[in-house]
UniProtKB/TrEMBL annotation:
Domain Gfo/Idh/MocA-like oxidoreductase N-terminal, chain residue ranges per copy: 9-125
Top-level taxon: Bacteria
Annotated SUPFAM superfamilies: Glyceraldehyde-3-phosphate dehydrogenase-like, C-terminal domain, NAD(P)-binding Rossmann-fold domains
Stated name of the protein: Oxidoreductase
Organism: Devosia elaeis
Gene3D superfamilies according to UniProt: Dihydrodipicolinate Reductase, domain 2, NAD(P)-binding Rossmann-like Domain
Pfam families cross-referenced by the UniProt entry: GFO_IDH_MocA, GFO_IDH_MocA_C3
Domain GFO/IDH/MocA-like oxidoreductase, chain residue ranges per copy: 138-258
GO MF annotation, one: nucleotide binding
InterPro entries with a match to the protein in the record: Gfo/Idh/MocA-like_OxRdtase_N, Gfo/Idh/MocA_Oxidoreductase, GFO_IDH_MocA-like_dom, NAD(P)-bd_dom_sf
Length: 344
């Protein structure tokens, strides 16, 4: 297959449930990105996926890595299938853009980040909530300092996942495949976005449990108190046991304003009486269909990664930034298990 000069050569590994928004985003980026091939083990599913999204199938992962036009690999597999894929990509000098989480445990995630560092390849992690227009508008406000110092944080992720059709699927909600429950699989997006705006957490006190609404190995409900390095305090509630599911909400209370992100909508309430609204409310995948959200956030993140590789800068979401959210999740789970305050 001839490579179109000037376009960014990309190979895709994995074509399961989470691949749909990526496929749509890559379709919208055809003028910039040349998808050299998609590969997954299930040949029938691979054919169906490639036909649906008009993408070429790869003969093997090895063939993609041997293609000199492939500059990066987009990894969309479950986290238990990452180690060998990333190691082979790094050894072949291919950059890596990978779905969250980095791996099932922080220790394994650190190994992958270190492996990419040692190979000199860029590692980006998909956290598309950072790339919503409303999130970017709030990030700009925070960076400007116009709202003053941050004092309090409230994060709610009131999502729903059904037992039948979701947690009944083999591997779902297990440590072996997912690495955990609601925190590492669902709320990780909101936690990463929160940390990108607040700075690092310094301590947590949490309750983590599995409600009677689900039969699963890992947690489907977490509530906790948060302490941040900048002196702010916060509260967290994350669940997949809130039928029918609602949009996640993040509120930051500053000296001169309170900012609330609800799904793709930002409301700024200034203490002088002004109110500003940015963006439009959008479905965020909080209900029974986890893929019910737009693909433009993925498109923006893929574009950022491509530009980062081409201009030799770090992407906005990296393996190193992802380790912050992994460590926060570890602390919340440990606090819930041991019933004590955990310092990060």
């Amino acid at each position: 297959m001839a490579h179109e000069q000037g376009k960014f050569g990309l190979g895709v590994i994995g074509a399961g449930m989470g691949a749909k928004p990526h496929a749509l985003a890559l379709g919208a980026l055809r003028d910039k990105v040349d998808v050299r091939g998609v590969w997954r083990r299930n040949e029938e599913e691979l054919k169906r996926f490639c036909a649906e999204y008009e993408l070429p199938a790869a003969a093997s992962y090895e063939a993609l890595l041997a293609d000199p036009a492939v500059e990066a690999i987009l990894v969309l597999t479950p986290p238990n299938a990452r180690q060998d894929i990333v190691a082979a990509a790094a050894a072949a000098g291919k950059h890596v853009l990978m779905e969250k989480p980095v791996e099932r445990s922080t220790e394994a995630a650190q190994r992958l980040v270190a492996l990419c560092d040692a190979a000199g390849v860029t590692l980006g992690i998909i956290f598309q909530h950072r790339f919503r227009a409303a999130s970017e508008a709030l990030a700009a406000q925070v960076a400007s300092g116009a709202m003053g110092s941050l004092h309090a944080v409230h994060l709610t992720v009131p999502w729903w996942r059904p037992q039948q059709g979701y947690y009944d699927k083999p591997g779902r909600g297990t440590f072996a495949q997912d690495g955990g429950g609601v925190l590492i699989t669902q709320a990780i997006h909101s936690l990463d976005l929160m940390l990108s705006l607040t700075g690092p957490a310094s301590a947590v006190t949490a309750l983590a449990a599995t409600t009677g609404l689900h039969s699963m190995e890992t947690e489907d409900f977490v509530a906790g108190g948060l302490e941040f390095a900048n002196g702010a305090v916060g509260a967290l509630m994350a669940t997949t046991a809130n039928y029918p599911g609602a949009a996640e909400s993040l509120t930051l209370n500053f000296d001169r304003a309170s900012a609330t992100l609800t799904g793709g909508n930002l409301t700024l309430n200034w203490l002088d009486g002004r109110t500003e609204i940015v963006g439009e409310a959008s479905n965020s995948g909080g209900g029974a269909d986890p893929m019910a959200f737009p693909f433009d956030w993925h498109q923006a993140q893929i574009e950022d990664f491509v530009e980062a590789v081409r201009t030799h800068r770090q992407p906005r979401s990296t393996g190193h930034t992802a380790l912050h959210v992994h460590r926060l999740i570890d602390a919340l789970i440990l606090s819930g298990k041991e019933g004590r305050r955990i310092e990060l």
